[in-house]
Amino acid sequence: MDASKSDLTKRIAVLGAPTDIGAPQRGTVMGPAALRTAGLLTLLEALGFAVEDHGDLSIADVAELTDVPPDNAKHYRQIQRWTRALSTHAYELARSGAIPIFLGGDHTISMGAVNGIARHWHENGRELFIVWLDAHADYNTPSTTLSGNMHGMSAAFLCGEPGLECLLGEQPRSPIEPDRLELFGVRSIDKLEKELVRSRRISVADMRQIDEFGVGVLIRRVIDKVKARNGVLHVSFDVDFLDPSLAPGVGTTVPGGATYREAHLVMEMLHDSALVRSVDIVELNPFLDERGRTARTAVELIGSLFGQQITDRPTPTNAIEPDV
User: Fold this and answer.
1) Residue 134 is among the residues annotated as catalytic for this protein
2) Would residue 212 show up in a list of annotated catalytic residues for this protein?
3) pLDDT tens across 141-179, in order?
4) Predicted confidence band at 309 (pLDDT cuts at 50, 70, 90)?
5) Does some domain include residue 319?
6) Is 324 contained in some domain?
7) What is the DSSP annotation of 34-57?
8) Does the annotation mark 206 as catalytic?
9) Is 283 a catalytic residue?
10) Structural domain contains residue 322
11) Structural domain harbouring 229
């Protein structure tokens, strides 16, 4: 690691990625501003973190590549530029010793952000696991997708599936093994996508399992698995993980999502695990929101992920400090 252990306990680096071209509904470009307006940075500072706001990323100076775009991948060229820029910045933020939080934007931002994070942890001899809190699996490829919308290909790209090999150009690609992806809260998945997920034996905690076993049991299984392998966690939080009654400000609402308390319990347990080293918050569409309700709920949940408590329960001494 390039930074001291004490630095890791205190610093959060926030980077916005205002893009909406990976999704069919415009509006997530306003997501980073909405999360800041809803008080995300102020809340994190109140929890004792030194928050470094790196503003919003721009791809104006990122050159286009000349590879042949894959069939059935909409806005590939622009998303390629975002992916390359985010991968570079994510890698540098992780190397700095801060905990990066990426503000989306649609879910394509994870392609670059998580790749950069995974590259950093691979160099440090640690396995990166991803908790994918989402109504969708996002495990399509250009050959399986029905829509061509690339926000539905993010998880597949991160696991090294074929079809988007040139998305990073000459930058290092750091794919994770499919057994390090944890799909949590899924309730909408395409037919060919489902077959691919099954063939890769990816862990899926869908809403039926959550109803049957409860979020506490299922998220504990994830935590125990990561701890057993001395791994670290990235939390990819798509706000459509939540039930639309709580989070109307998304373009891909699916009924039957996580309740307010279920979502907070997930975040509280992930905080207590001391495993979370990076986060992205995606698919918030303020244009579709109701007086900022979805943004405020998302901020509250991130507060729980970073230690906000209703009661003064003892917090594990290693809840922020990683074992490196």
Assistant:
1) yes
2) no
3) 999 999 999 999 999 999 999 999 999 999 999 999 999
4) confident
5) no
6) no
7) HHHHTTHHHHHHHTT-EEEEEEE-
8) no
9) yes
10) no
11) 5-305
